[in-house]
Amino acid sequence: MTAWIIAACAALLALAVILFDRYRLRRTMDTLDRMLDEAIAGTFAASHFDESRLSAVEAKMRRYLEASGVTKARLAEQQARVQGLIADISHQTKTPIANILLYAALLGDKPLPDDCRDCVQALSAQADKLRFLIEALVKAGRLETGVITVHPKADSVAALVTDALREAAPKAQAQGISLSGEPVDTTACFDRKWTGEALGNLLDNAIKYTPAGGAVSVSVVPYELFCRIDVADTGIGLTEDECARVFERFYRAPAAHDAPGVGLGLYLAREIAAANGGYIKVSARPGTGSTFSLFLPRPTATPDEM
Predict the structure, then answer these.
(1) Is residue 31 over pLDDT 60?
(2) Cross-strand bridge partners of residue 227
(3) Distance set, CA 177 to CA 67, 117, 214, 265 (Å)
């Protein structure tokens, strides 16, 4: 009888130990789950824990999240400083650059020797390039830091393409390039202003690197989840390695080194596409032209589905 009682007590004690261990494990997992949820939401704050009551894994997780939070805060602070610096530079240089362009135009209207006229034209071109660079840097910085927000909504792709073709037509005509498009009456989710700039950058890039007598075309292919806008040219093309780097900030392909530009147009286009929930792909071969494809989500495709 005594042995039976001892066995029963031992069984109950073992059950109690098992239940207590399960309780501690569940409590630890619940705490880790809560900590991760707070970290994802950006609301994690360190608390004072008694390490004798929590596992070493939980304590390490807490220290890791603290370090990650500090790193994220420092990165955000550095981005804000850089954005503020770029904004200050933009503000302080806007008037001087405008004055340089104005006086260069005034000089160009006066009777000047040919060599002086060449210098005035070079001065005007470089000042305009500097103005474009600063404006592009400000746009890129504001997109990256969220100062500029993109508001996608269901809109007409045909209208987007038509507007972009109309704006690109004068430059294509001046360079002797055939520009054509096939707007399709379909809809996609995008911010009209910023997506128009992205498509304009793709067209400007195609025209810039297509020699006189070449052609640039725009076509639209609707899918179930995305709408694809292709900008194809018969220009210099890209190698496989260049295709992998062409969307990097300030990247210029070796063959395009002497062409005008600063290497920000395609980078901005990719950032805008991503902000709309889409993306950009490129298909190209050297000497046979390039095709840049802008994918925009359809109204039936929600962010969760993509």
Answers:
(1) yes
(2) 222, 296
(3) 55, 28, 5, 20
Model-wide pTM > 0.70 = no
d(CA 209, CA 288): 12
Residue 96, by phi and psi: left (phi above 0), alpha (psi -120 to 50) or beta?
alpha
- Digit-coded pLDDT (tens) for 66-114: 666 656 666 667 666 766 666 666 667 777 888 888 888 888 888 878 7
Closest CA to 42 of 9, 69, 75: 69
CA–CA distance, 263 with 274 (Å, rounded to integer): 18
Q: What is the pLDDT of residue 65?
A: 63
